[in-house]
Amino acid sequence: MNSSEQYKRQIMNDLAQGDSEILEDTATSGQEYANFDDFAQRSSHEERRQLFGRSLHPDRIPTTQMEPELQKAIAQIKPNERDDVARAFFKHLKQRGLSDRDLERQLGLSTHNPNHMSADDVTKLASFAYHSHPDIFQEVLAEQPGIIKFLSNPVVAAVVGIAAAKWLGNHRK
């Protein structure tokens, strides 16, 4: 395991346990998470949307840093999860007036069918949303949080970690 992965794992473990150094002046609410998967499963969509909305934005993490991370992360998720991610991006982008066929042409996708998209296609779609429609990117990650655990860049992990610590701190009594 490289140092980036160790760093990310430590941040997620600290957050899952309610890191007492970060949150020492707050009492526990009983909502602790064993790991990121536990957080992704038990936290609400709104909680995840707020967390990712504050941390995953081109103003905080430049597109040039996020795109390679997305490529690695999307390549690691299961094909059925990748289909769900693509479907979610298309759904939200369609609400903005961008059709799946137009996006296929504009982004150079191999198809507009989420069931047949490659990891590269989904990466192009995610990168486009991150750069051009960050709110949609954040919404899709709130719906499909599994991608986050595969992001390895220490800057990405740190920003998510800081935001999660603040979120946990704000929700403890």
Q: Regions with pLDDT < 50 over 5+ consecutive residues?
A: 19-30
What is the end-to-end distance?
36 Å
Secondary-structure element pattern, one letter each: HHHHHHHHH
Main structural class:
mainly alpha
Largest sheet: none
SS field, number of helical segments: 9
Rg, rounded, reads: 16 Å
Helix content: 55-70%
Task: Using the alpha-carbon principal axes, give the shape.
Answer: globular
Using DSSP, what is the number of strands? 0
Mean pLDDT: 76
Strand portion: under 5%
How many domain modules? 1
Describe, in short, the structure shown:
This protein is mainly α. It contains nine helices and no strands.
Topology:
Elements: H1 3-16, H2 36-42, H3 45-55, H4 63-76, H5 79-95, H6 100-107, H7 119-132, H8 134-143, H9 154-170
Helix pairs in contact: 1-9, 3-8, 3-9, 4-7, 5-7, 5-8, 7-8
Note down, in words, how this protein is organized.
- The chain is mainly α and 173 residues long.
- It has 9 helices and no strands.
- The chain has helices at residues 3-16, 36-42, 45-55, 63-76, 79-95, 100-107, 119-132, 134-143, 154-170.
- The radius of gyration is 16 Å and the shape is globular.
